[in-house]
């Protein structure tokens, strides 16, 4: 099963905003769509972990610019990611998948504490693991949490789901002539300020040679296309930067 797959263990990074629609911070319809995508890939034998942001509920950085203490605002944002993780867990289990939510902040009534060896054991047992509460520390984004957790569980790739096809040389919503990158080096992603992940996350991936694939989940089958090795989205890694 899954002999032709490029990746066998992945970390899927979702933004909190990806869960909402039509004025709702969490859309059951979108949750079901994500769960169906995850199930389809899981059925191929891929081990899957997820990290979810909390921006659909509360964004710590934005609150801190409006006068709130940054550390306190970030902790509130971490709690928002737990809400999203529990919502996604429920959607995944409706699809018949076995799941575990692990939180960097202890809250035993809701989820397990994050323990690396336990997380890896869950993956080996074919459970989908959802990492919540970021790194458990203020001043670090969920992008950085995704990079950190991916390396801790020996994931082969971070897959960053977005609402556009990949990484562009300019904002495609503002510029009709924006071109999509086929692949981007870590250094170009940092030096050109490309909106891949935050600089800390990209640097962490670069130091540990962990590839990032930025792709769209707007069209069904995006995750499956990436793990199958199709030329889809943008690869960020130790490679020569190339436009399509």
Q: Would you write up a description of this structure?
A:
- It is globular, with a radius of gyration of 17 Å.
- A 10-stranded mixed beta sheet has the order 4-3-5-2-1-6-8-9-7-10, sandwiched between helices.
- It has helices at residues 28-42, 60-65, 70-94, 116-124, 142-152, 186-191, 199-207, 222-227; strands at 9-14, 47-52, 99-103, 112-113, 128-132, 157-162, 181-185, 212-216, 234-237, 242-243.
- It has a single domain (9-243), classed as Carbamate kinase (3-Layer(aba) Sandwich), CATH 3.40.1160.10.
- By secondary structure, the protein is α/β, with parallel strands linked by helices.
- Helix 1 links the parallel strand 1 and strand 2 (47-52).
- Helices cover 36% and strands 19% of the residues.
- The two termini are 32 Å apart.
Instruction: Provide the CATH superfamily.
Output: Acetylglutamate kinase-like
- In one word, what is the shape? globular
Q: Could you estimate the helical fraction of the residues in percent?
A: 25-40%
- Mean pLDDT across every amino acid position: 93
CATH class: Alpha Beta
Largest sheet: 10 strands, mixed
**Major β-sheet strand ordering:** 4-3-5-2-1-6-8-9-7-10
Number of strands: 10
Q: How much of the polypeptide forms β-strand, as a percent range? A: 15-25%
How many angstroms does the end-to-end distance come to? 32 Å
Topology as a string of helices (H) and strands (E): EHEHHEEHEHEEHHEHEE
CATH topology: Carbamate kinase
* Helix count from the secondary structure assignment: 8
């Amino acid at each position: 099963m899954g002999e032709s797959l490029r990746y066998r263990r992945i970390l899927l990074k979702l933004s909190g905003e990806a869960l909402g629609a039509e004025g709702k911070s969490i859309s059951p319809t979108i949750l079901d769509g994500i769960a169906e995508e995850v199930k389809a890939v899981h059925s191929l034998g891929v081990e899957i972990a997820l990290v979810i942001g909390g921006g659909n509920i509360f964004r710590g950085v934005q609150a801190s610019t409006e006068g709130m203490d940054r550390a306190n605002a970030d902790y509130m944002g971490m709690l928002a990611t737990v809400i999203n993780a529990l919502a996604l867990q429920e959607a995944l289990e409706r699809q018949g998948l076995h799941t575990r939510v692990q939180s960097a902040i202890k809250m035993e009534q809701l989820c397990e504490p994050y323990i690396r060896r336990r997380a890896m054991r869950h993956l080996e047992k074919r459970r989908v693991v959802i990492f919540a509460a970021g790194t458990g520390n203020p001043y670090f984004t969920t992008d950085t949490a995704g990079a950190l957790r991916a390396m801790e569980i020996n994931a082969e790739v971070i897959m960053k789901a977005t609402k556009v096809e990949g990484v562009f040389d300019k904002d495609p919503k503002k510029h009709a002539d924006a071109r999509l990158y086929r692949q981007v080096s870590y250094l170009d992603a940092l030096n050109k300020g490309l909106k891949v992940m935050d600089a800390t996350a990209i640097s962490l991936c670069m130091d540990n040679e962990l590839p990032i694939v930025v792709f769209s989940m707007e069209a069904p089958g995006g995750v499956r296309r990436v793990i199958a090795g199709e030329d889809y989205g943008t690869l960020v890694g130790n490679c020569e930067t190339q436009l399509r």
